[in-house]
Amino acid sequence: MKGLHSWIRVQTGPIDPKARANTFSNEHMGEAIRFVSSHEVGHTFGLKHNMGASFSYPVDSLRSKTFTSKMGGTAPSIMDYARFNYVAQPEDNVTDITPKIGGVYDKYAIDWGYRWIENRTAHQEIPLLNQWIRKHENDPLYFYGAQQAEVVDPRSQSEDLGDNAVKASEYGLKNLKRILPNILDWTEEEGKDYYKASKLYKAVIDQWGEPIMVMLWQILVAFMLIIPFMEMAKTPLSPYLQKYKRKL
């Protein structure tokens, strides 16, 4: 719970006054617990980590109150390690900053895995299941990015947000800079020492390293875009999108 409290504080404190307190309300903490527990429930359904889900959202859209309210938080899958919306700036007035429970990808993956198909054996189901995959193959909301021991595909990283890690990291670091001069104001309690201030300061330092590493991998790793090995895949591998490289 302490770790969860720390994430929320350093990732959303600049845009959400409720996230600045030493102790959260039951409602605020309850929402965060539902987010984490829903991720674990996803594993009980057989869902793996989908570290590429957050890549489907344009970075600037994470600053849009309309977009985040409609799409729900930071990713179309609860199985990403997308965390909370550290991209949104105070002037954006974004309020949906927690990943949505049961995103578009999650509902699709569970439906694909569990829907009853009458009068077909498991082998006979395969062509139909492949059709369902093809239906969404060009839709970024349904992109699956596997968890990696070593980063090969920088779209699929832990703690990242949006489709441009450099831009997202710049926004995230701007928000962290906003926290530093307010640490004492956020942690002060009459008759107490600076222990909680020191914990928040350390949390800011720890968070500072996350977008830096995500950004470095995004720039340095040359990766290949994996295409599902099916009948329609003329080439199993295709080069990384040159347009996106130039953007970085």
From TrEMBL:
<keyword id="KW-0812">Transmembrane</keyword>
<keyword id="KW-0472">Membrane</keyword>
<dbReference type="Pfam" id="PF16313">
    <property type="entry name" value="DUF4953"/>
</dbReference>
<feature type="transmembrane region" description="Helical">
    <location>
        <begin position="212"/>
        <end position="230"/>
    </location>
</feature>
<keyword id="KW-1133">Transmembrane helix</keyword>
<protein>
    <recommendedName>
        <fullName>EcxA zinc-binding domain-containing protein</fullName>
    </recommendedName>
</protein>
<dbReference type="InterPro" id="IPR032534">
    <property type="entry name" value="EcxA_zinc-bd"/>
</dbReference>
<feature type="domain" description="EcxA zinc-binding">
    <location>
        <begin position="23"/>
        <end position="215"/>
    </location>
</feature>
